[in-house]
Model the fold of this input.
Amino acid sequence: MGVVNVTPDSFSDGGAWLDPGAAVAHGSDLVRQGADILDIGGESTRPGAEPVDTAEELRRVVPVLVELAPLGPRLSIDTSKALVAEAALQAGATIVNDVTALRGDPDMAALLAEHDCDVCLMHMLGEPRTMQRDPRYDDVVDDVKAFLSERLEYAVAQGIAEERVWLDPGIGFGKTIEHNLGLLRRLGELVALGRPLVVGTSRKSFLGTITGRGPLERIPGTIATNVLALAAGARVFRVHDVAEARDALDVAAATLRGRWAKETTTPTTPSTTTSSTTTSRPSGRS
Ligand code: HH2
Done:
């Protein structure tokens, strides 16, 4: 899953793709690099970020989705607003990535229940403006697991098909470095919830704490976590640097299987936890 941030203030690439033409060119480039999914977002969720109003978020993401849809990747909309999700679904998105896990907008669950789309539910403690102020858990893995399990039950009770739900521990969302590392080390306990697990470590600050490197120099750190997450059973890897992650994950996946086949690790639609689609690799990387 390649990240397309159509924002002025994202933590690692704020402003780089705010112009719709630049965002579309970037998304196409990520597809050429091997992204199966593009996750398009018009509101930063970095610690301390200020909320964006609905009209502005729509203005940022809809033209980009419309232009990217014909290029073929699956499109995910990174939003917690039902109106933005609805417009994105109309524009060609087939995945809604809600970092509030249906807690941000009372209309979101009903909207998603009506639509034929996948839904990513992520754990976050608090909200972006305050989430990094002294986050505490009894046991971070048990607490995140209980939250995701409850959110999955809630989604199903609201009419969203269980097989449509993906889960995400929300690395960096109300977590210290120890919390992030604990979640990554015990990811298998979240895989046991039985739904495809999404992991978003890309360029995040805990990698900088360990390596001493700035956001754009955290690709090796990102890849280390992606490969370990793959081995633990995660299925979707949300990254900014697709070419590098794709190569690392292809090699790691082939090694774990003990054979090589042109397969992706992306859940299919409708998804099952075990199936995978056969794809030809995008051109332009030879
Ligand atoms: N991380 C970010 C945003 N959305 N969605 C999911 N499901 N999982 C994540 O870990 C996740 C996410 C933060 O990264 P980025 O989009 O690059 O930054 P910003 O929120 O500042 O735009």
